[in-house]
């Protein structure tokens, strides 16, 4: 026996208790009514497609689906001084969506529109440290005016990992941990030998989405142009 739910509000309430993956992928296939219900403002906030005005601005709630699929971007680093960090080109290749790479790269892929947190990240700090045998150099940048979605974050970080750079993201609330004034901090690290290689880096296009964005990063001091780290 099939029970017909006649109240849109009741259907919306019931669907709101489903896991995000089911709400995003399975529910729209049931019927046109169910598909239309997933586009209501309430469910769009649950799906991290729209900002939730009721969320606490001092606490960032990570998108659980993105944290599962893009784990190197969301992995908590217990020891920031550890030699290996979670993010690198190899770790991106190990992510489960590689089995459906064409679907991942296609224009209109829903993951690109998803907010990485509720409330949305508005300001990000980037810190890039290059370690040499006898010292190190640090470049920093701040990106503001964001409403950070996964497509932008992915396009921002991917070129930086293609020159042997490791990364990890320190997620925290605005004005929260570590005394930061930014919503989150992207840490980037590269280790070099005695000789600095300034040859241009060939960009890896295997992960390029059809909707990839050109992201210019205002590092201070800037990278030498020959390195091509911010080039898309």
Automatic annotation (TrEMBL):
InterPro entries per record:
F-box-like_dom_sf, F-box_dom
Question: Which superkingdom?
Answer: Eukaryota
- What CDD domains does its record include? F-box_SF
Question: Which residue ranges does the record assign to the F-box domain?
Answer: 8-41
The name on file for this protein is F-box domain protein
Q: Which organism is it from?
A: Favolaschia claudopus
